[in-house]
């Protein structure tokens, strides 16, 4: 009987100890799940209290993948590097994506698909828009496709991607008319809201 009592006491003591919180890449998993699915943390705490930890941990692989994709996307936006299928696609001219300034276009090598169009823009004309890095200070981040409007109400571009960077705050990439100079403040507008964004100064190796 004494041995059974000690075993029961040990079990109660073990169960009473705070359990280590699962984490992904050093970040609290419960917080990441709440953020990823846009649940406020109080609501999430109530939900998590009623769910076994194995179910909480079962979500970790999905959250891990989403977290890493998000982190990679943040770094690309911070550096002004476009993502294929997000910031640029097959309708984007290389000069619009600033590939000229990145040294990614050759005008001396042999023929390649699209060379005639690229060469014509380079030698005889210019593109009418550029992918620019933007900054914003309000939340939430403007969604892809949000219109960029100048102080006259004219639409002069659109948001291609945006993120809340731990290092720089609100950062975004947007396709903007070529005549809009760095330092210009624009309004990003979408169905659910709007925020002010500023066109960043051109930087070599980023969006220029």
Question: What tags apply to this protein structure?
Answer:
208 residues, alpha+beta, Elongation Factor Tu (Ef-tu), domain 3, 8 strands, 33% helix
Describe the structure concisely for a colleague.
This protein has helices at residues 2-16, 29-36, 41-49, 53-58, 60-79, 115-124, and strands spanning 23-24, 27-28, 129-136, 147-149, 155-165, 169-177, 185-190, 193-199. It is α+β, with helices and mostly antiparallel strands. Among the domains are: 2-58, no CATH class; 128-199, Aminomethyltransferase beta-barrel domains (Elongation Factor Tu (Ef-tu), domain 3, Beta Barrel).
Overview of this structure, please?
- With 208 residues, the protein is an alpha+beta fold.
- Among the domains are: 2-58, no CATH class; 128-199, Aminomethyltransferase beta-barrel domains (Elongation Factor Tu (Ef-tu), domain 3, Beta Barrel), CATH 2.40.30.
- It has 6 helices and 8 strands; from the N terminus they run H-E-E-H-H-H-H-H-E-E-E-E-E-E.
- The protein has helices spanning 2-16, 29-36, 41-49, 53-58, 60-79, 115-124; strands at residues 23-24, 27-28, 129-136, 147-149, 155-165, 169-177, 185-190, 193-199.
- The strands form 2 sheets. The protein has a 6-stranded antiparallel β-barrel with strand order 3-6-5-4-7-8. The protein has a two-stranded antiparallel sheet with strand order 1-2.
- Helix 2 crosses helix 3 and helix 2 (29-36) crosses helix 5 (60-79).
- The longest helix is centred in the middle third of the chain and has 20 residues, at 60-79.
- The chain is globular and about 50 Å long.
- 19% of the residues are buried.
- Mean pLDDT is 75; it is low at 17-27, 36-40 and 204-208.
């Amino acid at each position: 009987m004494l041995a059974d009592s000690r075993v029961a006491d040990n079990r109660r003591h073990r169960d009473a100890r705070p359990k280590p919180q699962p984490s992904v890449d050093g970040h609290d998993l419960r917080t990441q799940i709440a953020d990823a699915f846009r649940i406020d943390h109080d609501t999430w705490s109530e939900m998590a209290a009623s769910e076994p930890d194995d179910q909480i941990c079962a979500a970790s692989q999905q959250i891990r993948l989403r977290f890493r994709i998000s982190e990679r996307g943040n770094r690309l936006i911070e550096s002004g590097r476009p993502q294929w299928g997000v910031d640029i696609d097959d309708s984007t001219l290389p000069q619009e994506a600033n590939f000229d300034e990145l040294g990614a276009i050759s005008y001396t090598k042999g023929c390649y698909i699209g060379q005639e169009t690229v060469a014509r823009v380079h030698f005889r004309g210019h593109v009418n828009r550029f992918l620019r890095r933007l900054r914003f200070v309000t939340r939430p981040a403007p969604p892809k496709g949000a219109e960029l409007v100048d102080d006259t109400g004219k639409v002069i571009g659109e948001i291609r991607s945006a993120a809340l960077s731990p290092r720089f705050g609100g950062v975004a990439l947007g396709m903007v008319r070529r005549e809009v100079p760095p330092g210009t403040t624009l309004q990003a507008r979408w169905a659910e809201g709007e925020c002010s964004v500023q066109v960043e100064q051109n930087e070599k190796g980023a969006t220029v």
